[in-house]
């Protein structure tokens, strides 16, 4: 179930990873700096949440594979 959620999230953000997003040109460390007012803070929170979901899914997979 967690992997299905992760795959859906990946598919949702797939277009952004393919170079279609202006955020591809902005280093992550600048999200909270000069780009905070143009959505950098939200972008940072979204990427952190996605990474957290991925870590949780991997941990569950490791537990289930034992």
TrEMBL record:
Listed Basic and acidic residues bias regions: 55-66
Question: Which segments carry the region annotation Disordered?
Answer: 40-66
Protein name per its UniProtKB record: Uncharacterized protein
